[in-house]
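quick one, 138 residues, struct below
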Amino acid sequence: MTFVPTLNFNGQCRETMEMYQKAFSGKVTALLTYGEANDPAYTLEENQKDWIYHGELTFGNQRIIMSDHVDMRFYVCCTCFLTAMMETKEQVAAAWEVMKEGGTVIYPLEATFYSSARVVFVDRFGIRWGIMTETTER
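---
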């Protein structure tokens, strides 16, 4: 069994995928727009045809599914979030540099008793993240 995080957006999925790809050296492995999908279940406004119907990003052997939704409202949810475990504090700082613009910091980038570098925040797209090293020795 594999659990795959699935993130939904309201027209910002493409921009989000680009940011995550850059921050974590990911690769877009699937990208289908609503216009390409031509799903009869949806009546689209013209601007929604370029929204992402199904997208996938991979990071090594990890995968995230992402899409825009044309039929629901979105709220920031802080009960669930993604944690990216990095090898070094320099990698944490580099990913944070890419993702910090427009975000809301919950815990600033700092060393803790369990991590040499940790930052927790809600990114500008409403997704809560933790980026950290797994040890205090790196």
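The chain has two domains: 6-68, 82-133.
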